[in-house]
Design brief:
Layout lengths: L1 H7 L14 E7 H18 L7 E5 L2 E5 L1 E16 L3 E14 L6 E17 L5 E12 L3 E3 L7 H34 L6 E4 L2 E7 L4 E2 L3 E12 L2 E2 L22 E6 H14 L4 E4 L11 H7 L1 H6 L6 E6 L5 E5 L2 E6 L2 E7 L5 E20 L2 E19 L6 H11 L1 H14 L1 E2 L6 E11 L2 E10 L2
Antiparallel strand pairs: 1-12, 1-14, 2-3, 4-5, 5-6, 6-7, 6-8, 9-10, 10-12, 11-12, 12-13, 14-24, 15-16, 16-19, 17-18, 18-20, 19-20, 20-21, 21-22, 23-24
Helix pairs in contact: 1-2, 1-3
């Protein structure tokens, strides 16, 4: 697997197959090619250690086989460039060290080789990314002997060298092609669903062939969120998303843009799954918790009349309206409009509804990246707005209830919401791929994750 991944980091974020849904763009710049060049030397060196068949030399009337072994392949230079509209150009310089098991004394040889290859990056028939070698050539330098040479004749040495070059000429490009085929298998790890919650997942998919310039490769992909196996469909058609050229961190390895539609889908999923709902329960024996009928009775006379003895109160927070996320430059906000029902446990253990409140709370979102997940934390912006929706206890002074709700409602809501946002949502990735030193930038209508990549084999 490590062999495939060396060159594979060029396409680390290619997505999987899916339906047309919210827009995401992944862009890899030349910094990504430099990173691939650094970590790709080892798997390339391993792939080039081909088997060299015996060299047959004439000894009298018989052919004498001589075993040849590649002791080492060292790649001091490995360079990748984008080919606009096509793929990637590979240039590698390799030094091959051979041991020739001649009798009576083995011979050491060193042969420099330059490899040139062009790799096409396309979209496969089932929508997965496919990389293929379209052209490959090897160029050989002069062979030099090691360990002071050998007593063999110059003519025999020349035949030996031609034998080695002929073998490498046939096998090296095949080895690179096999390496790329292994990469395509590894890209298959993108297929499948990444969990978002216990019953929800996200899947990324290519929508078209990659857009390749002399400086970068950009991938238009879709992010589809699923709840209980069913896709989350926005009320309106998602609009096409174009990632501007100069956004994020300058010189970043990868830049990933997420449109407003992805946020809308994510919060619609949370709302449909019911995970934004919560119950806030007061403890009767807690002196610091005002969620009981005694405290409410001081604000609402009818509560004091119906419940002369203190009883615990429960707030059932239910989110009927879809949360609204808004992205402005350097500012991400979220508006929640839950219905809060205030209940008290009756003597028969059933709950009795006292009143309900329509609540509006505006939150500021701070976004960050951890490993392969986009995470968030929220804080309340301004005052929580509430109005009385229904009452079984007569007139309610909304202002007085507002003071109480601010005490008992905000912190549990934030704790619950931040626990959900802390779980995060998976970014496009391959197995063993991590995002590092990544920053999140908020722009008008979209966000950008920009930073580095680290592959851990």
């Amino acid at each position: 697997m490590a062999r495939a991944c060396g060159l594979g980091l060029l396409l680390l974020l290619l997505p999987t197959v899916g339906a047309s849904m919210p827009g995401t763009v992944v862009r890899l710049d030349k910094a990504a090619l430099r990173y691939v060049s650094e970590i790709g030397k080892a798997p390339l060196q391993w792939a080039l250690r081909v088997t060299v068949p015996h060299f047959l030399s004439q000894s009298g009337e018989m052919l004498q086989p001589t075993r040849i072994q590649i002791l080492n392949v060292h790649v001091p230079h490995f360079h990748l460039d984008f080919i606009a509209g096509f793929g990637v150009h590979l240039l590698a310089a390799a030094n091959f060290t051979f041991k020739v098991f001649w009798d009576p004394e083995p011979l050491g040889l060193m042969l420099p080789v330059v490899l040139l290859a062009d790799a096409r990056v396309a979209q496969g028939s089932i929508g997965t990314p496919v990389v293929s070698i379209s052209s490959c050539n090897s160029f050989f330098g002069n062979t030099s002997t090691l360990d002071g040479g050998n007593s063999s004749s110059a003519a025999l040495l020349a035949l030996l060298q031609e034998h080695i070059k002929a073998v490498l000429r046939n096998k090296l490009c095949l080895s690179i092609s096999n390496l790329v085929q292994g990469l395509n298998v590894h890209l298959g790890t993108l297929i499948g669903l990444n969990p978002v919650g216990p019953e929800s997942q996200i899947r990324y998919s290519m929508t078209d062939r990659p857009h390749i310039t002399d400086d970068s490769i950009s991938l238009d992909i879709n992010a589809v969120l699923f709840l209980l196996g069913k896709p989350i469909i926005l009320p309106v058609n998602a609009t096409a998303f174009v990632l501007p050229r100069h956004v994020g961190t300058e010189g970043a390895v990868v830049t990933v843009g997420f449109s407003q539609d992805l946020f809308d889908s994510a919060f619609l999923l949370l709302q449909k799954a019911g995970t934004l709902n919560l119950d806030i329960t007061g403890q009767l024996n807690s002196e610091s918790n005002p969620l009981n009928t005694s405290v409410l009775g001081q604000l609402i006379p009818e509560v004091a009349r119906q419940f002369p003895e203190p009883m615990p109160v429960v707030l059932k927070v239910r989110l009927g309206a879809t949360p609204v996320a808004t992205l402005h430059t350097n500012n991400a906000t979220l508006r929640l409009q839950p219905l809060v029902e205030v209940l008290v446990a009756a003597s028969n253990s059933a709950f009795q509804s006292l009143f309900s409140l329509d609540v509006e709370v505006n939150l500021s979102l701070q976004l960050s990246v951890s490993n392969v997940k986009l995470q968030g934390t929220a804080s309340v912006l301004g005052d929580v707005q509430l109005t009385v929706a229904f009452s079984n206890v007569g007139f309610i002074d909304a202002h007085q209830v507002h003071l109480l709700m601010g005490t008992v409602f905000e912190k549990p809501l934030l704790d619950h919401l931040n626990a959900l946002l802390g779980v995060g949502i998976a970014l496009p990735n391959l197995v063993n791929l991590h995002y590092v030193t990544s920053k999140v930038f908020v722009y008008e209508g979209y966000i950008v994750v920009s930073g580095g990549l680290f592959y851990q084999s």
